[in-house]
Please model this.
Amino acid sequence: MEVKDKIRAFIVKNMSVWEDDIVLADTDNIFEKGFVNSLFAMQLLNFAEQEFNITIENSEIDIANFSSVSNMEQLVTRKLLLLHAR
Model:
């Protein structure tokens, strides 16, 4: 499973909206759309660090980095590239 798919699956599993017709686009702001609440950002942080074996620095803890599937994928991919470059 790719990074984006893992992130999407985690978000969908934890969404606070349970309507069958809701589609989560990669660029949807999950907080603005009400799919999750702001406390979920910490769960996303923990998920990313554990699932992908990365460390997200304090300077990277910005709601924008966790607001969409695309933004999270970019953050995780960047961290993985840095990790493998060492």
Notes: DSSP finds three helices and no strands in the chain. The chain has a mean pLDDT of 91. The chain has one domain: 3-85.
